[in-house]
Amino acid sequence: NAGVTQTPKFRVLKTGQSMTLLCAQDMNHEYMYWYRQDPGMGLRLIHYSVGEGTTAKGEVPDGYNVSRLKKQNFLLGLESAAPSQTSVYFCASSYLGTAGINYGYTFGSGTRLTVV
Amino acid sequence: SQQGEEDPQALSIQEGENATMNCSYKTSINNLQWYRQNSGRGLVHLILIRSNEREKHSGRLRVTLDTSKKSSSLLITASRAADTASYFCARAGAGSYQLTFGKGTKLSVIP
């Protein structure tokens, strides 16, 4: 049982280049999330999805796009990378238990992205 | 906005000592969760405490929750070098599938 898998693990981009980060989960979770983690800033939510075919903006969505064409996959795209997008990106998934209780997230191991 | 805030930001203790980290929040919760992050890795779920619970144990972990003060604490007893990591609290609001994370406490356990 792999849980949440993120690819790639590391990437260096030049300013203006584009790329897609892939997140795959095998737990049949409905909810998926993309976070970025920067020193001193904690985790900030970029985009999230409550099910296949749905996406929504989080706290810091500018410069990013997402897609959830299949329930198990959640893609994060950078159309024109900027140095401010240098960060560690984490994907997570979750489900809601009875009475709508969020029992916790399962995180991937992260993608370290550097934009030069 | 991030409503779960941990205190202290950093903590350094000797192996065998207890480590206590605190978390404060601003709005009502359904439950509060604690996560650990080892350097360069993803966050790992440690323990969940519901709003109607006051204390919960899991191995060497003890979590308390005071909803009147909107605060929680995580106690790690008899710490080990392997406990060195950052610890985050995350708040689950009533009826919400989203968690709001704090900025974390960086714990260093010195052998």
DSSP summary, beta strand count of chain B: 11
**Which percent band covers the strand fraction of chain A?**
over 45%
Task: Supply the number of helical segments of chain A.
Answer: 0
Structural class of chain A: mainly beta
Q: What is the tally of beta strands of chain A? A: 11
State Rg of chain B: 13 Å
- Please state the overall shape of chain B, judged from the principal axes of the Cα atoms: globular
Rounded to the nearest angstrom, the distance between the terminal CA atoms of chain A is: 36 Å
Shape, principal axes of CA atoms of chain A: globular
Q: Helix-strand pattern of chain B, N to C?
A: EEEEEEEEEEE
Unreliable residue stretches of chain A: none
Please state the CA-atom Rg of chain A, rounded to the nearest Å: 14 Å
Question: Can you summarize this structure?
Answer:
The complex is a heterodimer of chains A (116) and B (111). With 116 residues, chain A is an all-beta fold.
Can you walk me through this structure?
The complex is a heterodimer of chains A (116) and B (111). Chain A is 0% helix and 49% strand. With 116 residues, chain A is mainly β. In chain A, the strands form two sheets. In chain A, strands 2, 4, 5, 6, 9, 10 and 11 form a seven-stranded mixed β-sheet that branches. Chain A has a four-stranded antiparallel β-sheet with strand order 1-3-8-7, with no helix packed on it. In chain A, 34% of the residues are buried. Chain B has 111 residues and is mainly β. Chain B is built from no helices and eleven strands. In chain B, the strands form two sheets. In chain B, strands 2, 4, 5, 9, 10 and 11 form a six-stranded mixed β-sheet that branches. Chain B has a five-stranded antiparallel β-sheet with strand order 1-3-8-7-6, with no helix packed on it. In chain B, a hairpin with a 2-residue loop joins strand 6 (55-58) and strand 7. Chain B is globular and about 40 Å long. The chains are: A mainly beta (116), B mainly beta (111). The interface between A and B is medium-sized, with 28 and 26 residues.
